[in-house]
Amino acid sequence: MPITTVRSAGAGAVTAVITLSCVVISLMQTFIVPVIPRLPELLHTGASDASWAVTATLLAAAVVTPIAGRLGDMYGKRRVIIASLVLVVAGSVLCAVSDSLLPVVTGRALQGLATGVIPVGISFLRDILPADRVGGSIALVSAALGVGGAVGLPVSAAIVQYADWHVLFWVAAGLGVLCLALVALLLRESPNQSPGRFDIPGVIGLAAGLVCLLLAATKGGAWGWTSGSVLGLLAGGVVVLLLWGIYELRVPQPLVDLRVAARRPVLFTNLASLLVGFAMYATSLVLPQLLQSPSATGYGLGQSVLAAGLALAPSGLVMMAFAPLSARITARHGARVTLLTGLCVIGLGYGVGLGLMAEVWQIVVMSMIVSAGVGIAYAASPALIMGAVPVTETASANGLNSLMRSVGTSSSSAVMAAMLATMTTRVGPVSVPSEHGFRMTYVVAMLAAVAGIGLTLLIPRAHRPAAGQDPAPAPAVGASR
């Protein structure tokens, strides 16, 4: 693999730039969380409309990941990374100067469109770095996604508590500019490209289908799961994606090569990644609510938003700390074993958590165990995917894998929110999630991890490249042995 593109910066600097960029992008998901209860007041609108500031980012991120991956394979991964960082800066500035709903929702959608940095950045590392550095670098970047999410909550809570809420977005814009400058100065373009016709009908079909399904998932609780709007969106999304799949199988240069995606290593890795995303997001949604529940309930811990964020911040650092272990497991035993290990640790974390709900330190321990498993599992998925696809399709294949994780987190959000909304107890005039409700979310997340283990066992222990396919990369990032 040519590595001339790292002449102006060492492999460590390339990894650091991509890692920082992915951390900044992941921050966009959690930066707004402390402001959510105040959004109706701040944006002069109702609670239902204000929630679009969150929903827009989720939808944009899910839609863009496979599209950005294909663009990276066709036109150059560095170009797509730069374009994505420009979008996050533009969206952050728009939010920073706005006080009304439409521009803030637009800015948040632009921030979501920058999510393409993650799959494209991981593929960029595979193209650029020496083979012996790829495994550790991918593990580090994958773990860094958790750091962004975990650190973003307490940082944003502190900013909101001591400064104007617009400062959140000025900070985001500044971080985006820093990453943009580093990428422009230190990185050169990847040598691996596959020019061709961009599948615009495929983009439209995929975007329409995903928006329908994810919109139903994110708004089902507010609109009613049996309402005509939600059922219509679900049915429409399924029909559109079926038609999109038929079309993609017939075009010579599809947005997503479904034949490659149907290969056993790719298919079961993507399904397992969906369940990893599901299990991971449960901690992000459930644990802050448990920490902030009133102590008068007898099980709530009565913490502030800032204190809850600080309690969960170590989980991101744990993900980073386990990145080297993940790389070593993959190098010695293959990425399949790494993914199995991660899912087992996630399931163990939720099992332990069922008996550790009475004190703040117990929640911290439980979240750290789950995060360790997520960090290990997240690093394995790109390795499995890139070991099973041609080298010219790594970005688009990673984009699809990132999409599956996004579907998992969206599904988790809908399921966990519905469970906590229906299993409640009253504290004075207010209904809050019950202790049984919290425990059941743990059980469901644990079952998701168990199902992920079953899917991972279906991934072949070893496979040969298809005819005309590039050989799998070095063992550190290749298919499972």
Short note summarizing the structure:
By secondary structure, this protein is mostly helical. It has 19 helices and two strands.
| Strand elements, count | 2
Mean pLDDT over the residues: 83
- Helix coverage percent: over 70%
Order of helices and strands: HHHHHHHHHHHHHHHHHHEEH
Largest sheet: 2 strands, antiparallel
Properties at a glance:
74% helix; 481 residues; mainly alpha; single chain; globular; disordered C terminus
What does this structure look like?
The protein is mostly helical and 481 residues long. 74% of the residues lie in helices and 2% in strands. The protein has helices at residues 11-30, 39-42, 47-50, 52-75, 77-96, 101-113, 117-128, 131-162, 166-186, 200-223, 228-250, 258-261, 264-292, 305-321, 323-333, 335-353, 360-386, 394-422, 435-457; strands at 424-427, 430-433. Strands 1-2 form a two-stranded antiparallel ribbon. It is globular. 57% of the residues are buried. The model is unreliable at 1-9 and 463-481 (pLDDT under 50).
Provide the fold topology.
Layout: H1 11-30, H2 39-42, H3 47-50, H4 52-75, H5 77-96, H6 101-113, H7 117-128, H8 131-162, H9 166-186, H10 200-223, H11 228-250, H12 258-261, H13 264-292, H14 305-321, H15 323-333, H16 335-353, H17 360-386, H18 394-422, E1 424-427, E2 430-433, H19 435-457
Antiparallel strand pairs: 1-2
Helix pairs in contact: 1-7, 1-8, 1-9, 4-5, 4-6, 4-7, 4-10, 4-18, 5-6, 5-7, 5-9, 7-18, 8-14, 8-15, 8-17, 10-11, 10-18, 13-14, 13-17, 13-18, 13-19, 14-17, 15-16, 15-17, 16-17, 16-19, 17-18, 18-19
